[in-house]
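Quick one, T. Sequence first:
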Amino acid sequence: MKAAKTYLKGQSVFIISIIVILITILTVYLNGENHDRSITSNFYISLAIIGTVLFLFMTYGLYKGIGLRDNFPNFKSYEVGNYIPSSGEMPDLPFFEGGDGIGGIIISVLVWVAMTILIFLLLILIEIALWFSIFIIIMMLYWLFFRALKLVFTKAPITKGKIRISMLYSLAYTILYLGWIFILVYLTQKF
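Structure tokens:
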């Protein structure tokens, strides 16, 4: 009887990736407190840690013949609509002129309260937009991690049980996935 193929779930891979990134940030921060290094040096250290973990993870997965299965929830029920019909137009705001007497003071206080409420509501809208942006960024990162690793693990039938080929494929994909970032940082530092 042949054993069933081992699958990693996409959501688990994404969570592990986020944990590795947070541990890398924490390691560089705690290590950087005692040393006076530049931002690019810390960036190189971070990429080296992430690259090492990525290389080891891909080598292990390719050697064991692991596949990747997507179990992340679908968000296809979201419908795009016209929620802000008059965006880009400035509404006509009334101009309040209360004078210098008691009427002016009362109108000024009422306008002040109304503007405070308006600013509070605008801050709530900005917070919603911020959280929505964070959600979109997380979804994009998940897609990148999942698609990139799924591409790597399509080579699992070829590399299963062969450590040298697994390491060679892992090294090639690690260089492809992180090498361009090293080159970009190096070029920005030189120019």
